[in-house]
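PT: before anyone asks, these are the final sequences, not the draft ones from last week. 178 residues across everything. Please model them as a single complex and drop the result in this thread when it's through.
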Amino acid sequence: MKNKRLTRNFYTKPTLTTAKNLLGKYIIRRIGRKELIGKIIETEAYIGPQDKASHAYNSRITPRNKVEYLIGGHIYIYLVYGMYWQLNIVTAKQGKPECVLIRALDLDKIANGPGKVCNYLKLDKSFYQEDLSKSKKIWLEDRGERIKPCQILATKRIGIDYAGLYWSRRKWRFVLKN
DNA sequence: GTACAGATTGAG
DNA sequence: TCAATCTGTACT
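LR: through. Structure below.
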């Protein structure tokens, strides 16, 4: 099967669906004439208005999170703890502040953590609001790998205990087994 | 202009 | 288990 760039309609599906669909897909980052390619092996969903752990909880709109309200396919990238960049992919339709955090990639080395993902892919603020369906610098491809439901592990989310047990225990983190 | 909290990481 | 670390955000 031919490598296929993911188009807009991949990103506009329900967020939990897209979070699972993203597993096993490839992220392509072009730097000049080089390409960095990594398989997505871990994702985490954030569903804005209802999700206390989300920046868009209670439909908040700030200059930082406003891209979450755009139609799926845009990049939401931001700095946390003053040191680490977090790569998110905006999902769902326009007006719905939902996104998926890319937590881990498999490149030549394993990027097992959101901060490392951005470090290895050399992503920073300049990618804010980049459109994955059009960008020449970064996009996603389906390389024909079939992921079976039994390969997907759903676990509780990470690093958001402050949001309370109810939200931190939601199994919205998806890991690709091996 | 200023206070403040954080979707992590790596060391112990 | 736990603290380093510092930018962007939000509010005055």
